[in-house]
Structure formats: C-alpha cells, structure tokens
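Give me structure tokens for this 432-residue protein.
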Amino acid sequence: MKSKNRKAINISSRKTTAVAKTAVHRSAGRIVKRFSAPGVQYAVIEMGKVTRLALMITPVGRGPVHMQLGEALRSLRTVLEKQAEKMNVTVQTVFLKDAGDQTLCEQILAARYVDEPPVTTFVHQPPCSGAALAIEVWATGGKTVYVERPLPNVLQVSMGNVTWTHCGGITPRDTTGSVYEQSLDAFSQMKEKLKKSGVEMDHLIRTWLYLGNITGPEGDLERYMELNRARTDFYEGVQFGRGHVMAGVRQAVYPASTGIGMCGAVITMSATAIDTDRKDVFILPLENPQQTPVYEYEAVYSPKSPKFVRAMAEAIGDYVVIWISGTASIVNSKTLHTGNPGKQADQTLTNIELLLSQKNLARHGAPGAGATLRDLAKLRVYVKRPQDYPVIRKVCEKRCGINIPIIYVVADVCRSDLLVEMEGLAFAKRIR
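Here you go.
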C-alpha cells in the first residue's frame, strides 16, 4: 500500500459559535463535539492535525423536493462555516422518498459543488420523518489533508501518508440480467474504478450494497442470496488487507459491509479502500463473541454465505477507526425477538456495544483500544416497517444519547423476520 501526493485543501480560519444544543465529550485524549438541532445533527472528530465532520441532515420543511434539498444545503453550509477551518465535503449519501426525484437532485447538487464534487450515492430509501430526502455527509479538514478526484464519483483523501479512496453510485450497466449477473457487473465496475485510481481490490475495507426487493424471489432462492453468490465468486482469490493485517489475526479477512434493501429492483453499490506504506497502520477484522461470523453461516441463510466481517478496525498510529457492518438482532446465527421492534433494536445495539468494547478489541489483539455507544460518530438505522419508527427511535436515543447523529430510513432487511438493522462508525484513541 502506498500513499500519493494529493491536491491540498485551502485552509481558512472562522469564528465558531453555538446556536443549539452542543456537547463536548473528552475521551481517551480525543475531543468529539456534538451538535443537535431540528433538521441537523453532527459530530466533529479531532484526530491530531485532522478534523472530520459527520452530519445527518433531514429537512424540516415539507415543500417540493427542490425546496427541501435547498434547505438541507443551507443547513450544510451553515455547519461548515461554523468550523474553525475549511472543511471539504468528501462523501455524501442521499436517501430519497421518490426515485423520480433523483435527476433533479443531481442537477441541483452539480450546481452546488461545481468543481469540487463529493462522491455521491443516491439510495431509494424514504426517510422515516416523512421528508422527501435526507443526506448523510462526511467532510474533512486540516493542513495535512490533500484531495484528488481521479474519476467521476471517485475521490481520494490523503492525510499523514494514508489515503482513503471512496467510490459510489455504482449501478449495473445492464439491468435486464439476473441479480447474480448485475451484482458481478457492479463489483467489476468497483474494481475498475479502484484500479484506475491506483488501488487494488485487496485494499477494500468497507462496502455498501443496496438491493431492491432484497428478500424477493430469484429463481428458487432469494435475491439477497444471489447477491451473496456473486460476492463470494468475485472475492475468490482476493487477499484482503495483504501486508497490513494486524499480527496474530487468525480469522478470515473480508471488508466490513452492509447489504440492505431499497425501493425498486435495482442494485447500487459504494465502497471505501485504504492505501498506505506506513508501518504503524494496520487493519483488524472484528467479530462479536456472541455471534457466528457471517461468512460461516449455515446454508439455510444463504447457499454461499455473505463474505464480510462484523466490523473493520483501522489502527492508525494512536487512533482507531471502527467501521461497523450492518448489524441486527441476531445471536449466534439466529434471529431474536421476532415481531418485537423495540427488543430487536435493543439487541442490535447490544451487539454493536459488544463489538466495539475494549474487551473485544483486546480479544482480537488490540489491547488499550475500544469504544462505547456514546463514542459513535454516526449511526444509520434501517427500519423495515414505518410504524415501528417511534419505538426504535426511543430505544436508540435511550442507549446512544440524543446528540449522536442518527439517520432513520425505511428499508427492507435481508431476513423476513428482522425489523431493524443498524450500521455506524466509531473513533477511539489507543492507550499504549
């Protein structure tokens, strides 16, 4: 893995003022600032000379989609202008209530960003709030941060001789084929984008796979099962994390991932890869001691098991970034609390809590690292039934607090008896 020189982000100082509820949380030598107001929540993560910003924006107004997107972009601009230094928007995911609004939203966003577009993925998942759209945004700033856009909808961020490559909005070129064929084509495009950006497939650490009608029939199987078959076949022979897996790891290494449903019958993918030649950067795949690794699932769940790990931790010097895969109310390999959305949400958060814990990271060979639910930089919550949103939100706010950026969208989950799925990202500092 080698990092490249990138185009520098211009830096400018700005006075910061608080206009709503703000919390400053100090933990393990790092500072996380959280902000919560109607329509916008964000977290500021300071890692040495680099600042990262995670925002969840849901319009409060209920006018036409262009007015709601305009409100969201004004909220984003206000947040960015309040930061102490210039922040560069790098990645955004737009959740849409109506797929027919995508073209107009693309045009508005193109006019907004002009020469500095972020990687953008449109996902046809209605926000639980009833808004026409919601946006998850990542921004990065700092004097040591460099940015390059080698291809359309591909962006590379370098800091401290570590480069993250983000690509998104990947859809099959031919949507008339089977789920297996469309999935293979999307994975092939992902590989091509990474390779043209100077990154090999084995550097992949995180994927998002959005599949329309995810539990619907596909021949004698379900559509998600066929996606898993394509992923297994495409990953064959790839040695993920080659040269940068933490010493002593004996388990399988795959990217962290979310496989989730959306409206329609299409497939959309996005991904992140890491690239570095630093000797103090490692990746560490994480599993939950109370869950069977998904790549070892019995054939009843998928003839070719899903190839991903429960979470992927990146140890970068003194810091650890933990990418949490899509997580649900599963213990061992079985669904718990069938029919009870509140208990499923609570069990899902318990699974994430166990995954992030210092005890679990020490068990995997990284003592002195770990996080809690209150250390999450952001959380996505996929709600299967709109009527379950209030009870699921209540559980999340009780367990995680009200200041953590959370976005709630309606989406089918990969098992018919699962009512909720969650994913997130946590930052921690290693105690040596």
